[in-house]
Amino acid sequence: MKRRLLILPQVPNLRGNTVFLLCMICVLLAGCGRLAARRATPTARALSPGDVTRTLTHGGRERSYLVHVPPGYDPAQPTPVVLVFHGGGGNAENVRRMTGFDTVADTHGFIVVYPNGTGQRSDRLLTWNGGRCCAYAMEQNVDDVGFVKALLADLGTVANVDAQRIYATGMSNGAMMSYRLACELSDVIAAVGPVAATQNIDTCVPSRPVPVLHIHGDADQHAPYAGGVGAESLAGVSFEAVETTIDFWVRHNGCAATPQVTQNGSIRHTVYGGCKQGAAVELYTVIGGGHAWPGGQPGWRGGDEPTTELDASQVLWDFFAAHPKP
What we know:
The protein is α/β, with parallel strands linked by helices. It is built from eight helices and ten strands. The chain has one domain: Rossmann fold (3-Layer(aba) Sandwich). It has a ten-stranded mixed sheet with strand order 1-2-4-3-5-6-7-10-9-8, sandwiched between helices.
């Protein structure tokens, strides 16, 4: 009788398979965890002293701004912020070099922000929608006021911003942008310091008195002191006169009509006192001065030479420091 070999199916090693399955599950979970981490929105990293360029999307456009954080910055302390707007055709690096605001920020401990405007290119020949000027930003009706709000919200995620001490200044087209913020964002901007351009916006209805310090050369051929189209204007825009702009803010801020006037060398300083809510209106006139940032560098090769009798960046900070938002 022939014997048959009965081959039984292999019985699984339950203990070994269980260990194997558990290991596989751990590997899969770890992989899923790494994938989830890659897909998650990264937590905003707090700023530290130094320079960084940040980007955000607003109005369907990618926008950017350069931030300079002073060496003594303490993230536990609310810190003032000064927005510095470049002129038409410039950019953040251009106005940074021209104004030297980094040095003032390092000395006095505030954050300085240099936003970039918009243009056909993303890095140069940029402008601001300052009302009746200028170029691409005005023609495309770019929402630059909204951009500033978005910028400040973004900055607030990585820096301890003192909401009572946010200020705006700028050169030329950037000065116009500063005035527009005083008109439309006075609930946020504590004070403004426009340089070398006037207020060129049709409607200005600030919600409160806004301290204003204006600096202008009376021989400016781009944005004429007396108003109109400058002989060297590239934008061909008819500017409001300095007097018209100052008169508007004297009335709005409820200041005394008769100012105190002093002069030192080529610098005439006009101060309107008695303003409501501690506001102020001041005007520095550079006698014989052109289209330039006093105490700084020319805005472009062949640009007007700035006077050395006035340090605009230091004077502006002194004014800002004295006028937090009430």
